[in-house]
Design a protein that fits this description.
globular, Purple Acid Phosphatase, chain A, domain 2, binds fe (ii) ion, alpha/beta, 292 residues
Length: 292
Amino acid sequence: MGNVLIVGDLHGNTTFAQAMLQVAKRNDCGKVFVVGDFGAWEHMHSGRRYFDVVNRSAKKAAVTVYFLDGNHDKSSLLHELYDDHRDDEGFLVCRTHLRYAPRGHRWTWDETSFAAFGGARSTDKGWRLAKEARKAAQAETRRRYGSSKRPETAGTLWFPEEEMTDEELDAALEADSSPVDILLTHDKPRGSQPKWNRKDKPECFPNQDRIQRVVETLRPSVLFHGHLHVRYTDTIASGDGRWTRVEGLACDPEASQYLEYSGEHSWYVLRLPYAEERLEGTDETEPSSLPA
Ligand SMILES: [Fe+2]
Ligand SMILES: [Fe+2]
């Protein structure tokens, strides 16, 4: 069970999360790592239930699930609830088998060094804020006509903490700028060029530039990320003649709009200890390391 199953965005999809646990078991993965948009919505009853169900399924499969935050995860609440509950490796323990890697977190598994940098910009920010405002107006009307219920709606659909800040990045790189083998992020680095859904929008560039800076500082051999919901492989320069292989992972089927989508595009079996040659020479069209 020494391998790690790296998984793309789950968006709170319980069925797909459980399917990923079965893929992990079949591939001798004792760990699953989700690269953001996991579905950390503990401000809602359904979100707490999702955590409970995934945790129970993970325990049954003898797998521990880790995740970093995507733009659609309420990471401020994770810090509020679990900052004081950390395991020996510094992960925030959300449930016994469910752990969160905060931005800039670094650790080593099986002689392989990792770093995680969550966060991204939501391109549908305006729509999300408008929906929050509509809900707030409805709650106000209900209150006026006698209902005591007036739920807080701010920060329920769009999370102000969604992007990494320059200060967060500076602090993380100042604390440790030594190289890592594997970098896990939600957003893409500015330099990678997937064929679809590059999020080539000015509002998305600042966070992509931050990820690019992480790549050029930590010079990972491989970077896995989510967010684009598209499977692709690219190679980008990381400075001083070094290269980083970028593996973009697809997401759960319900969130995918990619015509050539297959569930296998959403995961990658990372064999540990990591050996660089294992990841060389993969054709761009090859979807992933497939289960046996
Ligand atoms: Fe995302
Ligand atoms: Fe997503």
